[in-house]
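Pasting as-is:
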Amino acid sequence: MTATAARPESTVSAWRSPLASYYLLVSATGILVLVGLAVVLSSSSIASIRTAAGNAYAGFLTQLIALAVGMAALVIGSRMPIAFWRRAAPLVLYGSMALLVVVLVTGYAVGGNKAWIRIAGFSLQPSEIAKLGLALYLGVVLSRFRHRLTNPRDIMLPGGLMAAAVIGLVLAGKDMGTAMILVVIVLVAFWVAGVPARFFGMVGVLGAFGLVALVFSAKSRVARIEQWFTGECVGDACWQQTHGTWALASGGLWGLGPGMSREKWGWLPASDNDYIFAIIGEEFGLLGTLLILAAFAMILVAVTRIVTRSTDRFVQIAGAAIGAWIVIQAVVNIAVVLEFLPVTGVPLPLVSSGGSSLIMSLAAMGALLSFARHEPGAAEALAARPSVVRRSLAVLSRGRRRG
């Protein structure tokens, strides 16, 4: 009776711990990165053989380099004080905007989106940097002017104006998928900042007209939405969606096993990137996909805890914006693979191949970990951990002497 009663009590105690958010973020990041590495190794090998003079590990090695850089950003960023992220916000945003201008001048297109530049032999997607920069910047300005967010002028200056500029630069490169994620970041930041609900209605109406205009500005977008809406798709137009569905279906409950995907053999385009969730389902089955969903749910819970427990308005706004970026982008990516949404071309955060996405996603997790370390009581709990270890070692040493 005593042992049974203690279990729920210990569970509640762990949930109430000031470090619960921190450990949820660490666990979720570890799961997503490890699964992502395994599937990127499997799914990128065939394409690497064709494009890298027979080197099956070329794509995976590039991912490892990005992982090393991203993990350094995560570890260093997680140890930084909140003041560091406040100071870094404008630098990250302005730097990303400068790079977005460079993209429009000298960048190159992939899949119709002009969003990449080359630096020292590596591809860089500045819009990924802009996601973190915009989330942090809005956290700074909206927390500073939170008492004046009651009329259009104060909402637009400076937060709304900078957000519009960043989204405009991304749309100039025809990257509608990334622009949609940036819009989500902005809306969540303004909502948490306390902007009156009536302004969201006004933005929703204007946004709907803008979205329709953007869709009809490109025939490929109209075709994708028409195919998704009607369900009528034949030939090459629905090749990717069809093979993505087949990959998920063939995985069953347990999957075909690590590295045993059939669709990666040239059948499923972007199998290591936009459609990596389908390969996860094929190789690790339903259980593997549920593990991915659980990891993103852990991030959502952790971010919710950070926003509700923190007393720092910057942390609340920036944390919510970063969490919305990671979680909503994951939802969009998975919904596309499941054919719940038309193809948008956004990667699965922390999982898909792509150096810029992985590095900036890990940097964003570093910011969230920093926020979690500064929750009420978290710093004291972290400081107490070494004493707990020392006490445990002392108990073990006493036990050995008695033995």
